[in-house]
Write a structure and sequence with these properties.
The chain has 654 residues and is α/β, with parallel strands linked by helices. Helices cover 43% and strands 16% of the residues. The chain folds into 5 domains: 1-32; 33-131, no CATH class; 146-232 and 397-512, Rossmann fold (3-Layer(aba) Sandwich); 261-352 and 361-383, no CATH class; 540-651, P-loop containing nucleotide triphosphate hydrolases (Rossmann fold, 3-Layer(aba) Sandwich), CATH 3.40.50. The chain starts with 8 loop residues before the first helix and ends with a strand. It binds adenosine-5'-triphosphate. Adenosine-5'-triphosphate (ATP) is lined by residues 125, 128-129, 137-138, 140, 143-145, 148, 164, 166-172, 482, 485, 516-517, 610, 612. This is ATP-dependent DNA helicase.
């Protein structure tokens, strides 16, 4: 395609577009190649369908060669049970390496006895769950469970919420839902699908799933990336929590209103004249400008034009008054009617249309002049200064008086937590403030999406919710998370509180209750902790059992050595498995320097959400709990990352 000569710029452009389209199609087909066909359903009537990541058709056959897993025809593959066989006799799972079949596993659904043709054995789910972790999440398209599939395939186009404990497959559901939306809702697909995750580490972890489902057009982003802001510093979490509250949005909007033609009369110098505008006239121009377009800077342009109209009107009025005064004075002194000497009289004599009064100005010319006038420029800048988003945020955070005026609900100590210097670097908590300011100053974001998926959604602050909802005008979203795993900055306690301001009660809540990651033993060991941090939450159950979690103690100066000992023992006993060490954020550097990173991924507790490993070492639970507010929830996250074995290293009492 790219070798073909292009005669013109237009042709070159079309060639690029066509090449891009083909590139995408190649990507889709390559993605589908991995486990090309993973399922087959045999109906009781003898017909069969093969299920794969995409649909494939041949010209001769009536039935498709391969049915896309998202097609309605594939539904029984996920939903049929012996109680509701949905017309199926057999469900078959196929394991492929390249194009070679390496495993077959059948379930018989209609109560008939297995024949020689059927391979009934260990379920493919158990196999998938006990497989080694690779450090990247894998698609679960072959083994989606009925409760997961129901959410993925839901016809509900509004807001779907999935609440579930650690490892219940929320991320799996969220990503397969994104793929389903692209397939089943063409409008949303055309407007784009966005997946938001808490940090770059997490996005990297899930980055393979959608491409392996043949979908390369989904945008994966963190809040930073959406706002286009890279923070230069880490802020304290108590200030971050405050900055996450929706009061800040009101404060920024309030601060902006003060910068849009504050009340009062106004005088503009135009050339040598002073033109006076009443407070009413200015307010009228302001209200009309604000109503005309969203965004301070775009509305400023409208305001400028309306102000010029008002100035031109005032000039005409003043001019009229002056001329009438002159007319009256002259008439009184000379007894002459001056009208006769003006162009009005002559034009009338020449048969022109009835003109206005003699002193009428050419208003269009006056307006054009005024739009170029320095005096008008200065007036607009004084009444309605052009702004950058960052300036607006600074004007609030670096000014104690502005904080006091616009955040009256905060206490004085809270406000002093927010107060910063004019040159402080931005922090993570400033990102949604800058985004809010950008929407206030420049108008709504340029890029919006037809469907937005948010993973670890319990992490979002009210201000972050605002920035995400802004990008989804249709309010079509899939939100997955677990409030028992909420970090220290989260502002809401539950889904109702988080979503109320945006969709009220209009969201559909699903709950997942089976853990596909952690073993029953690990879940038992965190039960008391869960009861403390989320007393209302039903504990999840696991499909699998394994080793009991262990604890080892070490002296304060022997922690790194103890972690290394444990990792060596685990990798000797279970070579090839993926290991992770979760520790307080401040410890990560020491562990990496001590050589731990050669044996395992070192994960600061604040970044552990959503990740998983075969074996996990949790270093110094007390330190993790003490490191941040709500530290017990960080510990709960840390303790639920292992699929097979968990070891906790605690510090020996002195
Ligand atoms: N139907 C399934 N088939 C195969 N594997 C699955 C299935 N559902 C979940 N899993 C696996 O279980 C593990 C946990 O799933 P996932 O990460 O989606 O859970 P989560 O609810 O998002 O967890 P967390 O609350 O810790 O973020 C993953 O390895 C995932 O691949």
């Amino acid at each position: 395609m790219l070798k073909a000569p292009a005669e013109s710029a237009g042709e070159a452009y079309e060639r690029e577009i066509a090449a891009e389209r083909l590139g995408r199609e190649i990507g889709r087909l390559e993605g589908a190649e991995k486990g090309l066909v993973f399922g087959r359903i045999d109906r009781a009537d003898g017909s069969a369908l093969r299920i794969g990541r995409i649909g494939l058709y041949s010209e001769e056959d009536e039935l498709p060669l391969l049915v896309d897993w998202r097609a309605n025809a594939a539904r029984p593959f996920y939903e049929a049970t012996p109680v509701h066989p949905m017309g199926l006799r057999r469900r078959r799972h196929l394991g492929l390496e390249g194009r070679t079949v390496v495993s077959v596993s059948d379930e018989l659904l209609d109560g008939t006895a297995p024949t020689e043709e059927d391979v009934v054995g260990d379920g493919p789910l158990v196999e998938a769950l006990s497989a080694r972790r690779t450090g990247r999440m894998q698609a679960a398209v072959a083994t989606l469970q009925a409760e997961q599939d129901e959410i993925v395939r839901s016809a509900h186009r509004g807001v779907t919420v999935v609440q579930g404990g650690p490892g219940t497959g929320k991320t799996v559901v969220a990503l397969h839902r994104a793929a389903y939306v692209l397939y089943a809702f063409p409008r949303a697909a055309e407007e784009g699908v966005l997946v938001v995750g808490p940090n770059a580490r997490f996005l990297d972890y899930i980055s393979q799933v959608l491409p392996s489902l043949g979908e390369n057009d989904v945008v994966l982003a963190t809040c930073r990336e959406l706002a286009g802001v890279t923070p230069g510093a880490v802020g304290p979490s108590d200030a971050a929590r405050l900055k996450g509250g929706s009061d800040l949005a009101e404060a920024l909007a309030g601060l902006l209103r003060v910068r849009q033609a504050p009340a009062g009369d106004f005088t503009v110098r135009v050339g040598r004249d002073l033109v006076h505008l009443s407070g009413e006239e200015v307010a009228e121009a302001r209200d009309a400008a604000v109503a005309a377009v969203p965004g301070h800077n775009p509305a400023r342009q409208v305001f400028r034009e309306l102000l010029v109209d008002a100035v031109a009107d005032a000039l005409q009025r003043d001019m009229g008054d002056v001329l009438e005064q002159i007319d009256a004075d002259a008439e009184r002194m000379t007894g002459l009617d001056l009208d006769r000497f003006t162009g009005a009289d002559r034009r009338r004599a020449e048969g022109a249309a009835e003109p206005g009064p003699a002193h009428e100005l050419d208003l269009d010319a006056v307006r054009a002049d005024l739009l170029e006038d320095d005096g008008v420029d200065r007036a607009v800048e004084a009444l309605w200064p052009r702004l950058e988003p960052g300036e607006l945020v600074r004007a609030l955070l670096a000014d104690a008086d502005a904080l006091a005026e616009h955040l009256p609900r905060l206490t004085a100590p809270e406000r002093s937590l927010l107060l910063g210097g004019p040159d402080d670097p931005w922090t993570e908590a400033d990102v949604p403030l800058l985004d809010e300011a950008a929407s206030l100053v420049d108008g709504p974001p340029g890029r919006t999406y037809g469907h937005v998926v948010v993973d670890e959604a319990q992490e979002l602050t009210a201000m972050q919710w605002r920035m995400i909802v802004r990008r989804c005008p249709a309010r079509a979203m899939t939100l997955v998370g677990d409030f028992a795993q909420a970090g220290p900055v989260t502002t809401a306690r539950d889904w109702k509180e988080a979503l109320g301001p945006h969709v009220g009660p209009r969201f559909k809540l699903h709950e997942l209750t089976v853990s596909y990651r952690t073993t029953q033993e690990i879940l038992e060991s965190v039960r008391a902790l869960l009861a403390r941090i989320a007393p209302d939450q039903r504990p999840t159950r696991s499909l699998r059992s394994g080793e009991s979690p262990r604890t080892v103690t070490a002296p304060p100066d022997g922690l790194v050595a103890a972690v290394l000992r444990e990792l060596r023992a685990q990798s000797a006993a279970h070579p090839g498995e993926l290991l992770g060490v979760v520790c307080a954020d401040s410890r990560a550097g020491e562990l990496t320097a001590g050589g731990v990173a050669r044996h395992a991924r070192v994960v600061p507790a604040s970044e552990a959400r959503g990740l998983e490993f075969d074996g996990v070492v949790v270093l110094d639970p007390e330190e993790i709990v003490a490191a941040r507010p709500g530290g017990e929830r960080d510990l709960y996250v840390a303790l639920t990352r292992a699929t097979k074995r968990l070891c906790t290293v605690t510090v020996e009492p002195a």
